[in-house]
Amino acid sequence: MVICRTSALAPLARRLEAVGRMAFSNYIMHTVICTTLFYGHGFGLFGKVERVWQFEIVLVIWAFQLIVSPVWLRYFLFGPLEWLWRSLTYWQREPFRRDSALAQLVPNRTLVL
């Protein structure tokens, strides 16, 4: 917990938080990327990539998710699959974009700080 509260690691902690908030979408994205790389419907690299390069692939995917997730959440309230899951759970279309959520919370789009 001390490491998590260290101000020097705050930017990384915010990125990890965003990845966590989009965990379902990121998990499925990771799965789709890896099955495309390794199985027959994609590049068919199963058994052909050495362990070191497999680790590199995972690091690249994680770096991508650490960059994209905070950007996505700047414009949207949830990841796409998290939104779908919530909408199906509550049997109503949940707000998706940040500006549409504000419009529902604050009438006439006037934001009072």
In short:
This protein is mainly alpha-helical.
Give an overview in words:
The protein is mainly alpha-helical and 113 residues long. The protein contains 5 helices and no strands. The longest helix has 25 residues, at 51-75.
Topology:
Elements: H1 10-21, H2 23-38, H3 51-75, H4 80-90, H5 98-105
Helix pairs in contact: 1-3
Quickly list its features.
113 residues, mainly alpha, 0% strand, disordered C terminus
Radius of gyration, in Å, reads: 18 Å
Beta-strand share of residues: under 5%
Percent helix range: 55-70%
User: What's the total helix number?
Assistant: 5
Distance between the termini: 32 Å
Quaternary structure: single chain
